[in-house]
Design goal:
Layout: E1 2-7, H1 8-12, H2 21-42, H3 49-52, E2 54-58, E3 63-68, H4 73-78, E4 88-90, E5 96-98, H5 106-113, H6 120-136
Antiparallel strand pairs: 1-3, 2-3, 4-5
Helix pairs in contact: 2-5, 2-6
Length: 142
């Protein structure tokens, strides 16, 4: 099983909340959706089984998690394949990863979204997405 946890304090690290309650609700829903989209983007998809087993799990107020409970999720995430072949590559730490997810799943997510380390590229994507969404819902950005 792979599990990625996100809580509201972490989201506040890089999103400046608007004054209105509607903006806070929008942000608290939109950012996890963006993270989930990124998880799906980097997940192996050849058979579709692993890819389709991801789910968002609400952990209560201000906290959310992403889970994949397939038997081999840990192998994909930690680079636990037996050898390098046509579908695998040697990766970080000497692990052998799927060619479709050469850094696993959690490592790239933490690298892009990790507390205090959100990349400038990802921060820009998040802000653009939020601004578009806010305009769509009738909010003005400030």
């Amino acid at each position: 099983m792979i599990r990625v946890d996100v809580d509201e304090r972490w989201i506040k690290e890089f999103i400046h909340y608007g004054k209105g309650q509607g903006k806070r609700i929008f942000y608290s829903r939109a950012v996890p959706e963006l993270i989930f989209d990124e998880i799906l983007r980097i997940s192996p998809f050849e058979t579709g089984h692993f890819y389709s087993k991801w789910k968002i799990v609400n952990q209560g107020e201000g906290s959310i998690a992403f889970e994949n409970q397939t038997e081999y999720a840990g192998v994909i995430d930690r680079g636990g394949y037996r050898g390098v072949g046509s579908r695998t590559v040697k990766g970080r730490g000497g692990g052998i990863f799927s060619r479709q997810a050469p850094e696993g799943i959690t490592y790239p997510i933490i690298k892009e979204f990790g507390e205090g380390t959100v990349s400038k590229k990802m921060e820009k994507r998040i802000k653009l997405m939020l601004e578009r969404g806010l305009r769509k819902w009738g909010f003005t950005t400030s």
